[in-house]
């Protein structure tokens, strides 16, 4: 399998107000290149991921200096033999650079990296009081994806205030038609009666609620995380550069299929268990007397599966849903619809999400996507035939002429090491919540 690389290094021309290519990348001047993309924390499976894709690039840039390279934009393509045209790897902005002679080592991030931009950099902007205050002051309710577009528009303003460069980011809507008309999680309100559960014709609308204090955050990425969690998925940058909402087992990307002869020797590890969604917990506490909660759960299968939980709490958009629908309009009786939609996003969306932890390095002329289903036909040492394993891709590391390392997170929580590791953060968070709730009750009394 032969692979070729191409692309551009661009700098923004402030006088002409456009990006200008200063170096053309090719096989002749790229020494090495690799990218890492993920939608879940390392070694884990979780909803609400908002992770920047990263690029490591070593290349020759004759005539360039360090100050010219820092802040440059890199657009990268690769092409395998048999592909009709180069395929875009991503759009990245240089965050760190070093050089020896004309050989540069560059680190870069994709568009998600801009979501850490602070609104306090935006003097004279409508978000100088904080992006959270701006969203609250809008005083409107929107679907999770509509809020993501709103946040993106404000990040664009913040980046322009910081850099002087307009229209740095764009948002691409979730494509309903490309995904077999399956809606993303919590796009609509669900209802139930004595006979069945059904999706209503009413969009689930969320407001940004200020009372809990969570919306005081100044980091746009926090708002993407809250919204992506409600949407049961993740926010990431596409290879073409746009930000978008992803779902696990997304039908748009089909199923990746790999075989033993396409996997690099001694790189394949596949867990003998899959993950089971044991419990979905949705909790909202508006004040000392007003709140809402719901749990959906099933019985654990410890013999064959490792349990995991979805838990949403301290989410200003969930609080806005509760304040408006349950207490103001009183048209939705509980947050069951939120919990059910999250449960369904794992058990039913795209035919159901299969999470079997694995990692392997693949050498195949194929492209892979975060959240994509994967089917691994694997024959281990001493085995005479391949066994088929199904899972979901949560991590992708592409290396120029070095294959693609694919993985799915989900450590075995049945071991003592996981209990010890998880207890520290969980206890600290729970203690903070308990203290806050006690103070609220005291003040309410």
Q: Mind explaining what this structure looks like?
A:
With 445 residues, the chain is of the alpha+beta class. Helix content is 22%, strand content 34%. The strands form five sheets. The protein has an eleven-stranded antiparallel beta sheet. Strand 12 (234-237) and strand 13 (243-246) form a beta hairpin. Helix 3 (144-163) packs antiparallel against helix 4. The chain is globular.
Q: Give the terminus-to-terminus CA distance.
A: 72 Å
The number of strands is 23
Order of helices and strands: EEEEEHEEEHHEEEHEEEEEEEHHEEEEEH
Which parts are unreliable, with pLDDT below 50 for 5 consecutive residues or more?
A: 414-423
Structural class: alpha+beta
Mean pLDDT: 91
SS summary, helix count: 7
Strand order of the largest sheet: 2-1-6-7-8-5-3-22-23-19-15
């Amino acid at each position: 399998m032969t692979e070729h690389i191409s692309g551009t290094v661009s700098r923004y021309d402030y006088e002409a107000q456009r990006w200008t290519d200063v170096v053309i990348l090719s096989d002749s001047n790229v020494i090495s290149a690799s990218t890492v993309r993920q939608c879940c924390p390392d070694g884990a499976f979780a909803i609400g991921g908002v992770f920047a894709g990263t690029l490591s690039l070593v290349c020759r840039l004759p005539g360039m200096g360090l100050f010219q390279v820092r802040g440059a934009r890199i657009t990268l393509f690769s092409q395998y033999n048999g592909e009709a045209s180069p395929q875009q790897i991503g759009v990245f902005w240089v965050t760190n650079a070093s050089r020896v002679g004309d050989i540069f080592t560059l680190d870069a991030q994709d568009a998600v990296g801009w979501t850490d931009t602070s609104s306090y950099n935006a003097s004279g902007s409508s978000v100088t009081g904080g992006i959270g205050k701006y969203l609250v002051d809008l005083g409107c309710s929107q679907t999770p994806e509509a809020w993501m577009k709103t946040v993106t528009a404000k990040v664009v303003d913040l980046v322009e205030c910081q850099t002087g460069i307009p229209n740095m980011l764009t948002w691409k809507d979730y494509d309903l038609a490309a995904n077999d008309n399956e809606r993303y999680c919590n796009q609509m309100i669900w209802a139930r009666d004595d006979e069945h559960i059904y999706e209503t014709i009413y969009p689930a609308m969320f407001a940004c609620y200020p009372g809990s204090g969570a919306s005081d955050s100044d980091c746009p990425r926090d708002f993407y995380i809250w919204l992506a969690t409600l949407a049961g998925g993740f926010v990431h940058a596409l290879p073409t550069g746009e930000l978008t909402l992803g779902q696990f087992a997304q039908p748009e990307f089909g199923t990746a299929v790999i075989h033993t002869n396409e996997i690099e020797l001694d790189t394949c590890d596949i867990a003998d268990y899959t993950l089971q969604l044991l419990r979905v917990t949705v909790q909202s506490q508006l004040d000392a007397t007003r709140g809402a909660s719901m749990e959906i759960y099933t019985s654990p299968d410890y013999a064959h599966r490792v349990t995991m939980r979805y838990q949403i709490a301290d989410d200003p958009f969930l609080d806005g849903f509760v304040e408006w629908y349950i207490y103001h309009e009183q048209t939705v009786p509980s947050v069951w619809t939120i919990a059910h939609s999250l449960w369904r996003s794992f058990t039913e969306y795209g035919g159901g999400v299969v999470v079997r932890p694995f990692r392997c390095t693949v050498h195949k002329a194929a492209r892979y996507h975060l959240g994509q289903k994967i089917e691994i036909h694997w024959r281990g040492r001493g085995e005479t035939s391949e066994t088929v394993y199904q899972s979901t891709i949560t991590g992708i590391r592409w290396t120029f002429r070095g294959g693609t390392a694919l993985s799915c997170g989900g450590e075995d929580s049945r071991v003592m090491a996981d209990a010890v590791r998880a207890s520290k953060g969980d206890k600290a968070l729970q203690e903070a919540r308990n203290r806050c709730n006690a103070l609220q009750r005291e003040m309410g009394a």
